[in-house]
Structures are given as structure tokens and as C-alpha cells.
Design a protein that fits this description.
With about 210 residues, this protein is α/β, with parallel strands linked by helices. Helices cover about 35% and strands about 20% of the residues. The strands form 2 sheets. It has a 4-stranded mixed β-sheet with strand order 3-6-5-4. The protein has a two-stranded parallel ribbon with strand order 1-2.
């Protein structure tokens, strides 16, 4: 039975019973002006509760996606992301394509068009929430973070801010290499065990359309 984990993976948790954090909500209101918002803290400190209750309090449309070890398989990642998109935009009849074997050679083109279609499906404004470091297990040594620019006409400004945002993370160690524009690799300490290292591959996609 795949229904239960599938729903949990792409559903924003209920905020019932959580104490409203109005001061933090105001900080999030201001922080949403940035292209990327990274919330960090030890397991169990309330990151998910904060975001889910904030989304509910502000009545924000949201695509929620919980990253786990199964997403190391790209076909699985795009499959579940398509389900998350359908859940976030139920009135849209169009569904996102699957990453089938014959599409693998043209992966970069597929990904670009996929996220363009994803962007067109979502309400404006909307939040894309990816839970990453806090949900990696001790065994995990690799992860990916996807950044989508939909509202800033100056994509170069977004690219300049991403490294600073990631390098200011409490568990950041070092820059792994200098990848092509819109792509980075960083080394972080695991939140469960600081002796354990995690490589995070970051991709930025420009989905801005001049209206």
C-alpha cells in the first residue's frame, strides 16, 4: 500500500495544537522577500510546526515536498513532485510529465521545461517548501536543493544571493567546486552527527516571465 507515505510526503502537516508564534511569523513575512529562505535547527525544535502553522495563519497556497533517500532516484523525485504539484493546484487539469528512460539523455532540457510547467501551475504568490537537512538519516551523504526564481526579473541577483545564504548555514563546511552558473556543490555537517558529512548539490532555475 503506497497511499499513506505518498500523502505524507506531499502534504503540509496540520498545525492544530501548535502555539502561534506571531513574532516569528512577522520575521517570516519580511524574509519572504528573499529568493531563498533556509530555516535550520536541531531535530524536534519545531521547524516544521513553525512553517506549517505560518502557512495556515497566512492562508498561503503551498507545494509541500518532503525530501527523503528515495529521491536519489531522479525518476522517483519527478514522479512525487508531479503528485505534489497536482495536490497544490487541483483545478489544473494538466499533469507534469514522468521522467522515463528515453528522456534521460536530455535531462537538463526535461528539467527546465518541467519546472517551467510547474511554475505555470502554481498560484501566485505561493510557497515551495523543501525539507532537507533535518530529514536526512545518518546513512545519507548526498542531497539536492532546488531553487526557483519566478518573481525577480534580475536572475543574476538571485544567483549572487544563493551562495551567501547557504554558506551562512550553521552546518556549512566548504564549497566543493565551481560549477556552471546556477549550480553549486557544498559540504555540510549532518545535523544528527557532526562527524558525518553531507554533500548538497544546489540547482537554480529561472522561471521568470515578463508580463
Amino acid at each position: 500500500m503506497r497511499t499513506a507515505p505518498l500523502i505524507a510526503k506531499v502534504t503540509c502537516p496540520t498545525s492544530t495544537g501548535y502555539f502561534p508564534r506571531h513574532r516569528l511569523y512577522r520575521l517570516l513575512d519580511k524574509a519572504r522577500k528573499a529568493p531563498v529562505l533556509w530555516i535550520t535547527g536541531p531535530p524536534g525544535c519545531g521547524k516544521t510546526a513553525l512553517i506549517s502553522s505560518y502557512i495556515e495563519s497566512r492562508h498561503l497556497p503551498c507545494l509541500w515536498y518532503k525530501v527523503d533517500e528515495a529521491d536519489a532516484d531522479l525518476s522517483t523525485f519527478f514522479y512525487y513532485l508531479g503528485l505534489a504539484a497536482a495536490k497544490a493546484a487541483p483545478r489544473k487539469r494538466r499533469r507534469l510529465p514522468l521522467l522515463t528512460p528515453e528522456r534521460m539523455p536530455g535531462l537538463s532540457v526535461f528539467a527546465q521545461r518541467y519546472f517551467e510547467d510547474l511554475s505555470s501551475m502554481l498560484p501566485v504568490p505561493s510557497l515551495l517548501v523543501y525539507q532537507l537537512l533535518g530529514y536526512l538519516t545518518w546513512r545519507d551523504c548526498k542531497a539536492a536543493l532546488l531553487v526557483f526564481n519566478k518573481h525577480n526579473a534580475k536572475f543574476s541577483e538571485v544567483l549572487e544571493k544563493i551562495p551567501d545564504a547557504l554558506q551562512s548555514h550553521l552546518h556549512f563546511l566548504k564549497d566543493m567546486d565551481h560549477s556552471p552558473a546556477g549550480e553549486w556543490r557544498y559540504l555540510f555537517r549532518s545535523m544528527e552527527d557532526e562527524a558525518r558529512l553531507v554533500t548538497v548539490h544546489v540547482f537554480a532555475f529561472n522561471l521568470y516571465v515578463d508580463a
